[in-house]
Every structure is written in structure tokens, then in C-alpha cells.
């Protein structure tokens, strides 16, 4: 599966949702997640994210993010249509430790 990671938080560009062939993105207030059981590993979304927040879970060190994606994909509503990024997305793009600071 692919997973959404830290830099999506408070950016939420949502370009990713438009290209996913199986519509497996789920939306929280300031973050999106991928449902690991629905993702078919096509990789199409990865280059579409302007924040480079989407990664294959074969990359090392993503266990925490895989857990977060799996947990919230079962709670949050599905999102399939692109919308405006969050206010201040550009300024926050690249900030470190977004999870600790902003995740909700
Ligand atoms: Fe959707 Fe493919 Fe991205 Fe998985 S890798 S979330 S199936 S676009
Ligand atoms: Fe987030 Fe990137 Fe999608 S910022 S909403 S994973 S395009």
C-alpha cells in the first residue's frame, strides 16, 4: 500500500484523490489517509502530491504512518473530488513535526 505522511497535514492539496482509480482516500479535518486494504499499489498518486507526502510503505520507517492511515481510513469519510488546499498550505509546506503540532 501507499501511505500519506506528515507533510500532508495542514496542506491537504487533494490532487491525490482525483487520480486514484479505486477512490481509497479518506479525509480528516487537516489530513488525508489511504485505506491500506483498498489501495491497489498503482503508485499513480505519489507524483501528484505537491507536498510529496505520499510514499510506498516499502520505504523504511513508515510503520507509524501505516498505522495512522489504517486507523483513520476506517473512521473518516471518503473523498474523491479535489478541493481548495487549506489556508496557509504553501507556508506550511515542508514544516517538520506537523503531526505533533497540528494533527487532529
Ligand atoms: Fe490510489 Fe494507487 Fe495511490 Fe493506492 S497507490 S492510493 S490505489 S492512486
Ligand atoms: Fe495531502 Fe498531498 Fe493529497 S498534501 S491531500 S497527500 S495531494
UniProtKB/TrEMBL annotation:
Transmembrane segments: none annotated. Its cofactor is [4Fe-4S] cluster; [3Fe-4S] cluster. InterPro entries: 4Fe4S_Fe-S-bd, 4Fe4S_Fe_S_CS, 7Fe_ferredoxin, Fd_C, FdxA, RnfB_subfamily. Residues 1-29, 30-59 form the 4Fe-4S ferredoxin-type domain. PROSITE patterns: 4FE4S_FER_1 (PS00198), 4FE4S_FER_2 (PS51379). The keyword Secreted does not apply. Gene3D superfamilies: 3.30.70.20. The keyword tRNA-binding does not apply. Keywords: 3Fe-4S, 4Fe-4S, Electron transport, Iron, Iron-sulfur, Metal-binding, Repeat, Transport. NCBIfam families: FdxA_Protbact. Ferredoxins are iron-sulfur proteins that transfer electrons in a wide variety of metabolic reactions. This is Ferredoxin. It comes from Rhizobium mesosinicum.
